[in-house]
Amino acid sequence: MLTDAAVRKAEARDKPYKIADSGGLYLHVATSGSKSWRMKFRFGGKEKLLTFGPYPDVKLSEARKKRDAARRQIRDHIDPSGARKRAQEEKAREAAEIAKQVTFEAAAREWHELQKGRWAPVHAEDVIISLERDIFPTLGERPLAAIDEPMVLEVLRAVEARGSIETARRLRQRISAVYRMKMSEGVVTKDPAAVVVDALQPMPKKTRQPSITDPDQAREVLIAAEASGASPITKLASRFLALTQARPGMVRGMEWSEVEGIDWDDRQFGPHLPIWRVPSARMKLIMDLKEEESFEHQVPLCWQAVEILRAVRRLTGRNKLVFPGQRHAHQPLSENAIGYLYNRVGYHGRHVPHGWRATFSTTMKARARKAGRVADLETIELMLAHVPPNKVAAAYDRHEHMERRRELGQEFADLLMKGMQPAATLLDGPRR
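Above: the chain's sequence. Below: its structure in token form.
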């Protein structure tokens, strides 16, 4: 091992040389007589070199401390030469360059494509439409790294300004999910949507969906809506929703392939039992039932509902969707189309699309109790697609009560549609 005296006495020679200490540390003596501390080591299968500084600026004792510190790093699988750190810095610089090139819209569409297989088709469509409507026009062309918290907040507050508090919060979650995906890929280092949650308006307290439960008064909602200038498809979807006890999303995503038992050509004779089979993937079920075919929801169709399908088939029969949107035949009717229609004709805060379920439930349960038909109460719940605790019984009951469900559905339809014009009269307007 070296001593201070040996280091001091080391003199220049014709060629550079080194004097070893221990642990890879040695004194390098140049032909000029300058001396420096160096350490040779191996890392990742490669021989590497560290320089600790010149002597006498760096004493022997200090050089040994530096050597010991370097050996500890090597033991912990850290390259003391800083190569790993430089590589990480280089990777961060490359990621920053990528982030300058990747736009939010490109990243969001990539995220949507990755996630949509986990969602029901209607929900997947709603997600991308919400981004196209509210986010892409402002942030879509901006690079990910160029979007900051105030920009995100400004976009979301514009959504809040039209009264869509819940939509703004959902959009924030979707923006955040896009950034988390790109953070995991090393493209960005922060999520500008993460901190704005506390700056958004609080969610209003949950209240019951506004609904008119008296069938005579509820009929006036349909009359007013059908006298408006709305499109025929929106009017027909509104009437069909009122008659089927379905959730609005089920009707919006309805496909022609889901309808059975209708003789479209009127060439058959005898009784027909038309039915609408809603796949479990489109139902509002708890997640562990989503893939169980037995939990498809079967809606027996009253003759008034069949009449609606016959009418709308003249407009959309060549499409996949029964009730497509105004702009694109491959996209469902807008999430807010029927609701906005009711608002425009004077029912804002009084009746919403989802309220037809309460209209049916209140009306038919009251009639069941008055007639002493207690068993009908359970059947009505099945018609509303409320899943019983016993999943086996649920699957059985959905088929067992079909005849009575059809009778109750027809009874309600006759009450609600009393005096209404045929569905075909709603066809006036542009055809798809």
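The chain has a mean pLDDT of 86.
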